[in-house]
Amino acid sequence: MCDCESNRSMDVKTPRNVYLSGFYKRSFAFYTIKNRMPVIITSLLDNLARNKLKLAEKYEEEAKEEIKTVIGQLSKLKYEIQTNKPLKLLSSQAADAKIYNEYITRQANEEGHATYFHTIWLLAECYMYRRIWQIFETMSVLKNFDPFQDKKEESFFTALPLIEQMGKYLWDSIHDSTTPSEDEFVQFMKLNLWGNKCDLSLSLGKVTEENTLFDISSLDKQILSDYSTDIWKAISACDSSSDIVDIVFDNAGYEVFTDLCLADYMIAKQLAKTIRLYVKTIPWFISDVMTHDFHWMLQQLKSHENHVLQNLGERWQSYIDNGTWLIVESDFWTLPFDYTYMARVDQNLYKQLAEAKLAIFKGDLNYRKLFGEKNWDPTTSVDQALQNFNPTKLAILRTIKADIVCGLEEGIAEKIEAEDPKWMETGNWGLIQYSNKIVEIK
Ligand SMILES: O=P(O)(O)OC[C@H]1O[C@](O)(CO)[C@@H](O)[C@@H]1O
């Protein structure tokens, strides 16, 4: 019996207003740490073992030895998770490691350590991905190797039929002569919301085909809180002093394609002049977008036989070349804590977001970080649950894949729970939320 099964964990659901944690056995955090995280490492181990020869060919012979070391260290990491060992301090020399280590030290229990099941879920899960990266970081030929790259590329290819449909829809919209309309903008936003269903950490690295995501009209009833009109007002208001929109990306593949369709719609219809696209700097939650994934996708589009995709690829490349779209890297997005820390830990990033007229946050992990990784009463207002993380107006688009939610009307959570007991884990329900409460920092 591992420590997580012993009486040190409580056989209850997560109480209200506390941090999500594997400490509560009837939570998605417990299920994730016990089952999903080890499976993710197992599938990484399988992939590496399977591709050893290919990697040795691509990198040098030396890669073979390094893969052995990586496999050994990943297996150790998996064992540490399964046996609920303390989170070891990172040995990496990178700047973020110091911040991780200080935070891990602050989370220590009375026995002087934080363990996977008995600390904040967000820390345990982010830490796993940071530890995976540390293993590669210390290699010599594999030090820049993204172990999830194959999966991300596969997910793009699998989604191509959808991408073609979406691309055509965008192409037609930007080439009609009409002014932007609320209906059209909201349609792009909803397509973008449902794109968040395509996430490889939820499917445990399995690439699946989602055929239903382009014809989304029937999905409206699955949007449990919909502030699309407020977001439209914020983006179309003439009184804004800024013409920058920020998008904090989530997943590569179909989702990021829909992010860019929304971004292009805003540029083409003059709702924004500049769009800043925030990417991750390390391989993250399997499918999160890094700079190289972005460029890889543009390359795929530019060389695709479908003319619309080719044209979009060229058009988006020109946005990058002339600075209409800016790819922004920041280590902050892969730190292990929620966004209330941003104003203290990365003031510059907070101030940068404050320059935008709207910041769009994508996906489930961003949701957990925006709302402090706490089990709010579902009727808690969005503004309250943000706990003063309000650099600018925020649009929050997320399909629900973890047991945290806020901003719902009275009775909704109970109704959906009765209809679909797994509603917080499947990504079948969506949220389009908004906050216009702005908190400046000096
Ligand atoms: O890609 P997203 O939408 O941020 O989701 C990331 C994943 O993180 C989790 O929140 C935790 O693993 C999942 O529920 C979800 O699969």
TrEMBL record:
Chain ranges of the Damage-control phosphatase ARMT1-like metal-binding domain: 32-415
Gene Ontology MF: a single term: metal ion binding
A Gene Ontology biological process term: methylation
Cellular component aspect of the GO annotation: nucleus
Catalyzed reaction equations: L-glutamyl-[protein] + S-adenosyl-L-methionine = [protein]-L-glutamate 5-O-methyl ester + S-adenosyl-L-homocysteine; beta-D-fructose 1-phosphate + H2O = D-fructose + phosphate; beta-D-fructose 6-phosphate = dihydroxyacetone + D-glyceraldehyde 3-phosphate
Keywords for the protein's UniProt record, in alphabetical order: Hydrolase, Manganese, Metal-binding, Methyltransferase, Nickel, Transferase
Identification of the protein by name: Sugar phosphate phosphatase
Naturally occurring in which organism (per UniProt): Phaedon cochleariae (Mustard beetle)
